[in-house]
Specification:
Blueprint: H1 17-23, E1 48-54, H2 72-75, E2 80-82, E3 89-91, H3 95-99, E4 104-110, H4 120-124, H5 131-134, H6 145-151, E5 163-166, E6 193-194, H7 230-246, H8 249-270, H9 273-278, H10 286-292, H11 296-310, E7 314-318, H12 334-359, E8 366-372, E9 375-376, E10 388-389, E11 393-398, E12 406-408, E13 410-411, E14 418-420, H13 425-436, E15 443-445, E16 451-453
Parallel strand pairs: 1-7, 1-8, 4-12, 5-6, 5-7
Antiparallel strand pairs: 2-3, 4-11, 8-11, 9-10, 13-14, 15-16
């Protein structure tokens, strides 16, 4: 049974479960069967997509767009190092990724106006949302990129789901559902299947900006006791639904339909041998698991590779630990969090993923995308942190039809704004659609049947394509 993991920690928005219920959670809507207007079949370069969302907003200056000649209040505490690309420098704390830049496309000019802690813009391409109405997932949201692709017939699995999110749904650490990964007005049939996780730390309580303990663990399917028949399992599912629905009358009224659809998906997943095998990380050697890292992020990345190998088309990883400090929302203690926790797990797992996909002959057909909800302010604040800054950020892509060894766009001297070749959230979404074989000029129907363009005004970023 998929479940909400309730903890007291929160992102800097400090939104609580009580506030969620005031706004209302997800409601159920059926999907549409109408064909998309204007859809034109095209060849897909990316047969699978792994999207890694660095929740909270990673500092672009302290990762892939350092400004070593800027004043210290801009460049921060880190030095920079040469990468595999002549003239391109990265922070000193991502040496492995720096050595692999010749296998990637680096975009240094991601820019939009959606200053929010949810993956709505990242996962839909729509950056016109407002937190007052778009913070929480609801049936009138625009659908995610994988949801649209599934609606249009791409990535709809039989033995395995077409779309899986790891290690849990965005917002699970607060018991809320952040907007972004869902089917929205296409209906819950196009929601992802979510894994569950129970991160562990070396001490009982870890503060939100604690830089000394990394969240450990792995994403898992719901646990089953041995010897259960399918009838008994079905009864257990029904009991779980009853317990979940009894938790809150408001949630029961507003969220029951969608949760029932998602729970049915999870139940179907549990009874599919191929799915249970793909989720079984014990089938990997201990050495391989160590290479990716035994932390929650590393094991999620390893599982993403296994799922793609098994035939899942879309896998997304959302980095939000259940007790603080696994996030990138570094208003405080930016440099120690990056140095001790965030950059080490990123610099360990992502290079392993790219290398493994290449060694297994899957990189050319698998697109890996790493980005976050926003960048961080050029100027360091009084708490040794950086604040929200959606005006400029980065995305790192590899495989699946993008150029190797390419840097797209330049930011200004303080990394505050794109100097040239800006890339909006909609532009990036259109590029992913194009690589997945979907015409970005397609439309899908909203809940009233009105055709809505999936491009949200964006254009394919042709300069990064092979």
């Amino acid at each position: 049974m998929l479940r909400i993991l309730g903890h007291a920690s929160s992102a800097c928005d400090r939104l609580s479960r009580r506030e969620l219920l005031k706004v209302g959670a997800v409601a159920a809507l059926g999907g549409f069967a109408n064909a998309s207007a204007g859809a034109k079949p095209q060849a897909a370069r990316a047969k699978a997509i792994i999207l890694i969302d660095l929740f909270g907003g990673p500092s672009h200056i302290d990762t892939f767009d350092p400004k070593p000649d800027a004043p210290v209040e801009i460049r921060g505490e880190f030095g920079s190092i040469a990468s595999a690309l002549p003239g391109i420098r990265v922070t000193e704390h991502v040496p492995n990724l720096g050595k692999m830049l010749d296998r990637t496309t680096l975009i240094r000019t991601i820019t939009h106006g959606y200053n929010s802690h949810n993956p709505y813009a990242v996962m839909t391409g729509y950056a016109g949302g407002q937190d007052q109405v778009d913070y929480y997932a609801k049936p009138t949201n625009h659908p995610s990129i994988p949801s649209v692709c599934q609606y249009l017939g791409i990535g709809r699995g039989v033995d395995l789901p077409g779309y899986v999110m790891l290690p849990a749904f965005p917002g699970y650490s607060q018991g809320l559902r952040r907007a972004g990964p869902y089917g929205g007005y296409l209906g819950p049939n196009y929601d992802p299947v979510f894994s569950t996780c129970e991160p562990k730390w070396a001490k009982e309580k870890v503060e939100f900006y604690d830089h000394t303990y990394m969240p450990m663990g792995e994403p898992t399917l719901p646990k089953l006791d041995g010897g259960l028949t399918l009838d008994a399992l079905d009864r257990r599912r029904t009991l779980g639904e009853q317990l979940d629905l009894a938790a809150s009358r408001a949630e029961r009224v507003s969220a029951g339909g969608r949760m029932n659809v998602n729970r049915r998906k999870a139940f179907d997943l549990l009874t599919a041998p191929a799915a249970r095998s793909a989720f079984d990380l014990t089938r990997e050697t201990p050495a391989t698991r160590d290479r990716y890292g035994r932390d929650l992020f590393g094991q999620s990345v390893l599982l993403a590779r296994r799922l793609v190998e098994s035939g899942v088309t879309f896998v997304t990883i959302h980095t939000e630990a259940a007790q603080g400090n696994g996030h990138w929302d570094t208003h405080d203690n930016n440099f120690r969090m990056l140095k001790n926790i965030l950059l080490p797990f990123l610099d360990r797992a992502v290079p392993e993923l790219i290398r493994d996909l290449g060694d297994r002959g899957l990189l050319d057909s698998t697109l890996v995308v790493v980005n976050g909800d926003m960048g961080r302010t050029p100027r360091v604040n009084a708490r040794a942190g950086r604040d929200h800054w959606p005006q400029c950020g980065f995305a790192l892509l590899a495989g699946g039809g993008v150029k190797a060894g390419h840097v797209h766009g330049t930011s200004d001297r303080t990394a505050a704004y794109p100097k040239d070749q800006p890339v909006s959230a909609a532009d990036l979404a259109c590029t992913l659609y194009h690589l997945a074989g979907v015409d970005p000029e397609s439309t899908v129907p909203d809940q009233t049947g009105r055709p809505v363009p999936i491009s949200h005004g964006g254009q394919v970023v042709r300069g990064i394509l092979m």
